[in-house]
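Sequence only, no structure available. Ideas?
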Amino acid sequence: MSESIKKPLTYRDAGVDIQRGEELVARISGAAAATRRPGVMGGLGGFGGLFDLAQAGYQNPVLVSSTDGVGTKLLLAIELDRHDSIGLDLVAMCVNDIVVQGAEPLLFLDYFATGKLAVDTAETVIAGIASGCEEAGATLLGGETAEMPGMYPAGHYDLAGFCVGAVEKERLIDGSKVTAGDIVLGLASSGIHSNGYSLVRHILDTRQISLAEKHAHGTLGDILLTPTRIYVRPLLKTLKEHDLHALAHITGGGLTENIPRVIPSGLCAEIDLANWRLPEVFCWLRDQADLEQQELLRTFNCGIGMVVVAAAADAAAVTAALTAAGETVYEIGVIRHSDEAICFRGRLT
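Reply:
I predicted one. Tokens follow.
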């Protein structure tokens, strides 16, 4: 074929439709605007998001940042064509990591990547992100939508999030105040949250279990897609009134790996597993896979999504404050002198 009659090629021919991306930005602008808070400068569309800490009321701030995804829970959302809450999961995984330092989440950015942009799906996902930002008090300051033909199977996409928060330097929580005799409190999770789903999916595949299977609280798919609880506002409110010694977000690694991250050397969090009941979804997973207790504890949150360490004299007041803020609180342990960092008594039931 001669050069003179070759058909001109376009970016759309390669699988990238810039117009679809522009349509998505137009659709999500209202949801993003609803998350605006003091400190935001400008709006969507710039090369970078601007935020003024002085306008947000900080005098001597320490910035706290976190980035995360939602893991293979995303594959269940895609399989079920249910995209309304996976964005909230994304926000929760980041902002819960921010608040454990005593910090207030200020701004959030998302990354949505796909082979071919389905505008309706992307809009639904980002609406969930905006909802999570509103719940956490953070602004959705910007993001990136990447259309990459050939990178993902048809109908698939990936998500990542990035959050920045701030705390006055003297209010930073780093676990250094934890001492023997402190009480360990557990805040109830809403379910599996967003960790352990590779094992969940392996159980479904190995045992040939349908997501349409009926349970007391809906289908199995409904239960597995229950969004991650956001603990930000109750914890920030409690921090204004009480001195919390440490906070731990129970994510990948479960109770076994996450609690020791905030326990100083020479001390141990002694956890009494009989002090709360294992929620039904974890009992189901345990029974389906014959999971040993050790495997449950180091893979899943087992019904405890956030851990709070407070002085024994303050524990009752902290419990009351968190309960009044809408949390379900259990006294799950005590801090002892030991080199183990964490130990468990009793059994999950």
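The two ends are 74 Å apart (CA to CA).
Hope that gets you unstuck.
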